[in-house]
Amino acid sequence: MSLHLRPLLAVALSASMIAPALAREVGDVQAVTRSAYGTPPDAAKEAKRLGDPVADHEWLETLSASGLRVRLADGSQLTLGADSKVLVDSFVYDPSRSDSDAAAKAAIALPLGFMRYVTGSMPKGHTTIETPTATMTLRGTNVTVAVNANGETHLAVDEGEVTVRSKLTGQEMNVGAGSSVDIKAAEIRKSEQSDTGLNNRPTQRGNEERRGGHDGDSGGAQSGGSESGGDSGSDSSDSSDGGSSGG
Questions:
Q1: How far apart, in whole angstroms, are the C-alpha atoms of residue 92 and residue 137?
Q2: Has residue 224 got a pLDDT over 60?
């Protein structure tokens, strides 16, 4: 190699070592209401728009009167209500080896706010949701989870079954379809409705939300206020229903 090329090669190698690796995409944005943001690993926070990719280890968050819906690689649907924050902590899905934990795993963390999660083709028992007070293992499930500022968690199961374990006491409970529980500092207890103090469930807004290519509604990214591009610059509705056969 000629001497005058060596400095150029050294600069190129240095740049490649400094630049962060491209984040692995594990899903995409299906709907945005008002202001929603994502922070991929080793990247700055950015507004989320319809069709934007979602990366493994990416933080997603919404502001007041806002919502966000994401479709993950296995067809699972994650919907965030207003003033919520969630981490796609680990997501791997290889349908050819889906019986392996290493090839099929979804780990979602919700430190604050409201979320609906509908499992897709992920095998039963391979999806977990973490909150400050609980670990929830999903089995063929459609659930809503709410976490208040104290970390107290409310879980409602619409379909399937969830095993809940308290991080504080070690208590475990299986929660079936049509049931709900509150996970507090002292215990897990069955409940009729959440007393966690969260009032940010997405509400049905009918024709106020523009629909995409399909008519199905999977509990989209909706909020009680009027719809606006806001800071996110994009509003849309779902393009497919989340399945509930896996997870």
A1: 16
A2: no
Residue 242 contacts by C-beta under 8 Å, 6 or more apart in sequence? Answer: 71, 75, 76, 77, 118, 119, 120, 142, 218
80: helix, strand or coil: strand
DSSP state of 3: G
Strand 104-118 with 127-130, pairing = parallel
Element at 134 (helix H, strand E): strand 134-147
The domains of the chain, with CATH numbers, are 22-208 (2.60.120.1440)
Closest CA to 230 of 71, 81, 78, 65: 65
CB 78 within 8 A of CB 84: no
Q: What percentage of the chain exceeds 70 in pLDDT?
A: 66
- Closest by CA to 129, choosing from 119, 118, 137, is 137
Residue partners of 15: CB distance under 8 A and separation at least 6: none
* pTM of the model as a whole: 0.73
The pair of structure tokens assigned to 58 is 């990416």
- In the predicted model, what is the mean pLDDT of the chain? 78
